[in-house]
């Protein structure tokens, strides 16, 4: 048993309290209760983050409603070619008194007439511009005159065709409005796909930004633990007089620097987490609720190289064929072209040739059936008719004004397509360059970590044999910490550059309202780029 004198206990007690207090504060900081506050963690993956963001994104909801508006516009435009069928039945019973000089005799002393008509009409405008009409009618006329009671039944069948000779002539003019609406619908659906891709890209970037800070914070936590361990060993050596006070002070400074960095990254993690939740639409989540990212940074085995920059034209062609925003712009140009055709047609005069034929039939009788029998009785031959209708507004300012507007609108849209094409060329080139450089940076960061890990292992062996100072060891450990953090930064930058390059090529693109989930593999591999 070891006994200490009261003086010895009194001398050691303040030192013991000091180190105990420092140890308690350090553990508080490491456990996350000091400065940053206690937090909760929920597991999150890239796929779940993207899925949630798509489900909750307001812009996508607005885009989906715009698609419905365009669908309604197309349905309305197609209604011009709907078949129209109408029928009517009319019954008129008329009674009147007789004048004193009226020589006709009527049953009951009053004139009574009954007219019953049946009409069926069919109209169909074809996409060739012609309009076809078929009408079938029957009229029954009865009265009570004595002795020649009227019991006439007349049937009539007519078929007519209206052929535009100027305005509205041909399928191009007749279907211009419908084709314009169809192109606008295609543009709206592509806009939805473009908004979807933008939402995915923003979420992917926010997720990997969060992962970068989360992983770097883990590295700093481990660095603090290692620094604390080295400092404790140095304190023991200092008590034995085997190291100088300056060396111990340097170790304490290194530990406090790592602790300070850890606190800064905890704050940065909270900020990145709130940004990610905002993009995911999780407005009701508790503030400062942290996610634990499950996904590791992807390992790129088929990455791009400098030589791939020579394939820029291939990538550009892919972008022009698949980017939804560019395809939507082209669809709007197509729609503007159809509107221009319609406007050019509207300034023409209306000259319509109407030709038709039919027949009339008659029968006598008072029964309702006789009214329909007249359609195929006592037919004396076919009827024929032809007419030419001409309409021309003198000034025609409404049509001319619309034509001027549509020409300008078409020119505007053509200019937008050219501008977007130039912008895509630039953005694809920049994205490819960023991806190549970030891939090179990632490889360099990996080599740096491997080299420093080897150096730290060798220095640790030398330190254990008392062949080097603790300052040399902690200096290499700090450099290894920085190298590991740089590797995390490089991995995050490379993953984000890949997602950005895919976006520029139009490869982050979901079909309109499909249930196909966007997978982790789609966002992190080069298979669809090569």
Quick recap:
The chain is α+β, with helices and mostly antiparallel strands and 530 residues long. The protein has helices spanning 6-31, 46-56, 58-78, 170-174, 176-239, 245-280, 312-322, 324-346, 368-373, 397-464, 470-505, 520-524, and strands spanning 41-44, 84-96, 105-106, 111-125, 131-143, 145-146, 151-164, 290-293, 350-364, 382-391.
How would you explain this protein's 3D organization?
The structure is a single chain. The protein is an alpha+beta fold and 530 residues long. Helix content is 59%, strand content 17%. It has 12 helices and 10 strands. The chain has a 6-stranded antiparallel beta sheet with strand order 2-4-5-7-9-10. A two-stranded parallel sheet has the order 1-8. A hairpin with a 5-residue loop joins β4 and β5. The protein is elongated, with a radius of gyration of 43 Å. The two termini are 75 Å apart.
Features of the shown structure:
530 residues, alpha+beta, Outer membrane efflux proteins (OEP), 2 domains, 6-stranded antiparallel β-sheet, 12 helices
Topology:
Layout (H helix, E strand, L loop, with lengths): L5 H26 L9 E4 L1 H11 L1 H21 L5 E13 L8 E2 L4 E15 L5 E13 L1 E2 L4 E14 L5 H5 L1 H64 L5 H36 L9 E4 L18 H11 L1 H23 L3 E15 L3 H6 L8 E10 L5 H68 L5 H36 L14 H5 L6
Parallel strand pairs: 1-8
Antiparallel strand pairs: 2-4, 3-6, 4-5, 5-7, 7-9, 9-10
Helix pairs in contact: 2-5, 3-5, 5-6, 5-8, 5-11, 6-11, 7-10, 8-10, 10-11
